[in-house]
Structure formats: structure tokens, C-alpha cells
């Protein structure tokens, strides 16, 4: 065997959490892209951060989430929940499998469960900043390309919660641009799935009082043959009606995430309706 192809201890590499994400981003966000498709990675990064903010609302902390995206593509998400515990701010955004969502005493329900979320956002951003506010104090950390550059802490007058700012790495998402239509659609879905939550995008409010009923009203635009049948409890919500058109249209979600290709949850629901009608 030639020295060029020699396989020994020197060829074995150990990557940190964020290095592995940057090396194999598809394992964590599915695809990269430039923002021209609604499933491109930049929208997944934004989703991961908003998911954490929405989880605070689900647990009863904070009824508002502020979102902003500038012309450069820099994203800013501020929630008014409990705020990341100050002593764990750096670990929570940089070490995989670190988080409170494994603890059902803290999060009985949550959108994100795998302990990756903001770590992937951090790793795939050229600049990533997190700032947590709790009980009159703050902890801030700045990362560049997944590397910790600076930490600050001290007193603050800010309300409790978490602020995250990030700029997707142009080396990974060349020529990227956020499509306002795709972002608008995602924010409305958050509103419909979390009745009573106010989301603001560059000052515009996204709010739903009636959850999935509002989603149906918007999509049907008065074409329903009867008032929608609607049920909602802690773990399940559905609403449906009929129109005089051929075919069917479904909007299905699991754990707060839109499932564009359906799944067993949708198949079971359709079968249940069919059996009920028959």
C-alpha cells in the first residue's frame, strides 16, 4: 500500500458538534439552496429559531414573537418567554443534544425535540448572536462560522426572553435571498397553529384568534357548503368542511410542522371521515 493511501491513526478525525453540521449540513437541514424553493435551508434555519420562541408561548410564557429580516438576509428573532438560563447560553446553541426539551417538567409540549435546532443555525451562519434576558441580567455570545468569538454579561432593563440574530453563510447558501411570500406563508401557519400568539414580521402582525378555523376561512374564501366542523384539545386539533369542487385539499401538521406529503396521521384522519360518513 502506498504511503499516499496509508490508513493509520493520523487519518482518524474527530469533529466537534458544529464542525460536523458544517461538514454534513444535509443531515440536519435537508437541503441548502438559495431560497428559491420553500424547503431551502435558509427557511429551515429561520424555522428552527422561531420554533423555540413558539415553544415558550405553548408553555404559557410570552404571547409575542418579533421577527425581522433585512436586505442582506440577516434574521432577528426576539421572544418574551423565560429566556435561556444564563449559565447555559453557550452550550444551548453550540453543543448537540443540549437543551431542556428532554425534561418534561420544563417542556410538556414543544415543536423541537432533537436538541439540534439552534446549533445547526449557529454552525451554518457566518455570524450568529444569542442573548438571553432573565431577572434583570443578560448573557450574550457571538459566534462566527460556528466558532465562539466573544461573551458578555451584565445587568439589563430588557424584558425576560431570548434574542437570536444570524446571517446565513453565503459560502454554503450562495446567492441566497429570502422570498417574502415563503416567509409570509410560514408565519401565518405559526399563527393558525398557535391561536392567541402575535407574531410581527418587520412590523406586520400575524395573529389568529380561532386557529385552524381561520386557516380554512382564508383558504376557502366563502366556498364552504356548511360551517366547518372543528375540534381542539391539548394534543389534537382538526377542522374540515366540503365545497362543490372536485378533489380534496388538506393542510396537515405534526408537532407544529407542516407535513406537505401527509403521513399516517392524515391517512387515519381521512379513513375516519370516510367511515363516519358511510
Detailed description of the structure:
The chain has 278 residues and is of the alpha+beta class. The protein has helices spanning 17-23, 26-29, 41-58, 89-92, 117-123, 180-193, 212-220, 264-277, and strands at 64-69, 75-79, 125-134, 137-144, 147-155, 161-168, 198-201, 204-207, 229-232, 237-240, 253-254, 257-258. The protein has an eight-stranded mixed β-sheet, with helices on one face. It has a two-stranded antiparallel ribbon with strand order 9-10. The longest helix is centred in the first third of the chain and has 18 residues, at 41-58. The N and C termini lie far apart (71 Å). The relative contact order is 0.13.
List keywords for this structure.
single chain; 278 residues; alpha+beta; Heat Shock Protein 90; 2 domains; 12 strands
Write the layout of secondary structure elements.
Blueprint: H1 17-23, H2 26-29, H3 41-58, E1 64-69, E2 75-79, H4 89-92, H5 117-123, E3 125-134, E4 137-144, E5 147-155, E6 161-168, H6 180-193, E7 198-201, E8 204-207, H7 212-220, E9 229-232, E10 237-240, E11 253-254, E12 257-258, H8 264-277
Parallel strand pairs: 1-7
Antiparallel strand pairs: 1-2, 2-6, 3-4, 3-6, 4-5, 7-8, 9-10, 11-12
Helix-strand sequence = HHHEEHHEEEEHEEHEEEEH
Number of helices: 8
Spatial strand arrangement across the major sheet: 5-4-3-6-2-1-7-8
- Which term fits the overall shape? globular
- Low-pLDDT parts are 101-108
* CATH superfamily descriptor of the largest domain: Histidine kinase-like ATPase, C-terminal domain
Label the CATH architecture of the largest domain. Answer: 2-Layer Sandwich
| Radius of gyration over C-alpha positions, nearest whole angstrom | 21 Å
Reading off the top of the CATH hierarchy, the class of the largest domain is best stated as: Alpha Beta
Q: Ends: how far apart? A: 71 Å
> Helix/strand-derived class?
alpha+beta
Largest sheet: 8 strands, mixed
CATH topology of the largest domain: Heat Shock Protein 90
Amino acid at each position: 500500500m502506498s504511503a499516499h493511501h496509508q490508513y493509520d491513526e493520523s487519518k482518524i478525525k474527530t469533529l466537534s458538534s458544529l464542525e460536523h453540521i458544517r461538514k454534513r449540513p444535509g443531515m440536519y437541514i435537508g437541503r441548502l439552496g438559495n431560497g428559491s424553493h420553500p424547503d431551502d435551508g435558509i427557511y429551515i434555519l429561520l424555522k428552527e429559531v422561531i420554533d423555540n420562541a413558539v415553544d415558550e408561548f405553548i408553555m404559557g410564557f410570552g404571547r409575542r414573537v418579533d421577527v425581522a429580516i433585512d436586505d442582506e438576509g440577516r434574521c432577528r428573532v426576539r421572544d418574551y418567554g423565560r429566556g435561556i438560563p444564563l449559565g447555559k447560553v453557550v452550550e444551548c446553541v453550540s453543543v448537540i443534544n443540549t437543551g431542556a426539551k428532554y425534561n418534561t417538567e420544563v417542556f410538556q409540549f414543544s415543536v423541537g425535540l432533537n436538541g439540534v435546532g439552534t446549533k445547526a443555525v449557529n454552525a451554518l451562519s457566518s455570524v450568529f448572536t444569542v442573548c438571553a434576558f432573565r431577572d434583570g441580567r443578560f448573557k450574550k455570545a457571538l459566534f462566527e462560522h460556528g466558532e465562539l468569538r466573544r461573551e458578555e454579561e451584565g445587568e439589563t432593563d430588557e424584558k425576560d426572553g431570548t434574542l437570536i440574530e444570524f446571517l446565513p453563510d453565503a459560502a454554503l447558501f450562495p446567492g441566497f435571498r429570502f422570498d417574502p411570500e415563503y416567509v409570509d406563508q410560514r408565519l401565518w401557519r405559526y399563527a393558525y397553529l398557535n391561536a392567541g400568539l402575535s407574531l410581527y414580521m418587520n412590523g406586520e402582525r400575524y395573529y389568529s384568534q380561532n386557529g385552524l378555523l381561520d386557516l380554512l376561512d382564508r383558504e376557502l374564501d366563502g366556498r364552504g357548503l356548511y360551517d366547518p366542523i372543528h375540534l381542539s384539545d391539548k394534543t389534537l386539533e382538526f377542522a374540515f368542511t366540503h365545497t362543490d369542487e372536485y378533489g380534496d385539499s388538506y393542510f396537515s401538521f405534526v408537532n407544529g410542522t407542516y407535513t406537505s406529503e401527509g403521513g399516517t396521521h392524515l391517512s387515519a384522519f381521512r379513513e375516519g371521515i370516510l367511515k363516519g360518513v358511510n
